[in-house]
Amino acid sequence: MTKTYSIASIPGDGIGTEVIPVGQRAAETAADRYGFSIRWAEFDWSCQRYAETGRMMPGDGIEQLKPHDAIYLGAVGWPGVPDHVSLWGLLIPIRREMDQYANVRPVRLLRGVQSPLAGRGPEDINFIVVRENVEGEYSEAGGRLYRGTDQEIAIQEAIFTRRGTDRIMDYAFKVAQTRPRKHVTSATKSNGIVHTMPFWDERFEAAKARYPDVKTSQYHIDILTAHFVQHPDWFDVVVGSNLFGDILSDLGPAVAGSIGIAPAANLNPEGLYPSMFEPVHGSAPDIAGKGVANPVAAVWTAAMMLDHLGEADAAKTLEAAIEISLERPETRTRDLGGTADTNASEAAILKAIKEGC
Ligand code: GGG
């Protein structure tokens, strides 16, 4: 009997609504080839919905998502809705309530893509950022006092628990054990952030002892960003807190050519809840609606989702199709120095999947 996956699709805002359908068609094309099928449940949760209803998603939104095998999300955010309102109304509750604590963001210089770094090729840039995804600096603890007065105060607490820190370290070390170089780098700032970051370093030391076969390094976040640019070849798996991981996983893809290609998985590794897959990029209001958005991140994200669902061959085919589409400027989008619009990029990807790359 044909296996059918049930996937919740939330295109969201801006270019999310342009690239997610491309990823869906790419996944369906691969499904046809590999003998499984996908049933999509479409959700219009977005800033537009917020404008109409005062909510990014309905009150029982999380319950509606729980029965699905995975969640495929586009982008969140649109001018007119404060960014913290849109993010905390949709993306962050899904990550937290589904305990999607491991945010996995691969960074690879793909064939056909030019890095902005001189003299770097695909062999130099191939690492994974593992970002802690449900605590850390993204916290509701804190508050505002004396708003609008000279005495105004804003307090934001970062929350680092031993359970939360240890499990993201474990996840990163286990990923490293599956890779040839078996190396984990920790992003810290324990010279300036005096409570949480020394704690982060202590938990990294404890993790090192649990994985003696994995090599390690540790850098303060400031010099680490410089090393991403000057020595991207040093990195294999990079583990960071919620904020540091977020920043590093925009810088990484920029070094690898464009944030328009960067995929991400928000994983609940234990499988107690569906995991969520989303391109790293946001809604890009500057190019939204023009038909020029790069769909590669959405397709690569769909590949991560299929891999997670156990369809490894289909996932590999999507990745290979992406690389074929990137070889020629006519099928590469403008952010990658090409001339293609979204449709031309999609056509090349679907053709490559059908032709059996
Ligand atoms: N594609 C997901 C998206 O729209 N991300 C926008 C964003 O600002 N995300 C912040 C985060 O990942 O913490």
Q: Helices, strands, pairings?
A:
Elements: E1 3-12, H1 16-34, E2 36-42, H2 47-53, H3 61-65, E3 70-75, H4 83-97, E4 102-108, E5 126-132, E6 142-145, E7 153-156, H5 162-177, E8 183-188, H6 196-210, E9 215-220, H7 221-230, E10 237-240, H8 242-255, E11 265-267, E12 275-277, H9 296-308, H10 312-326, H11 342-354
Parallel strand pairs: 1-2, 1-3, 3-12, 5-10, 8-9, 8-10
Antiparallel strand pairs: 4-5, 4-11, 6-7, 11-12
The site of glycylglycylglycine has 10 residues, from loops.
Radius of gyration: 20 Å
**Small-molecule components bound:** glycylglycylglycine
Low-confidence stretches: none
What are the secondary-structure elements, in order, as H or E?
EHEHHEHEEEEHEHEHEHEEHHH
- Could you estimate the helical fraction of the residues in percent? 25-40%
Main β-sheet, spatial strand arrangement:
2-1-3-12-11-4-5-10-8-9
Main β sheet profile: 10 strands, mixed
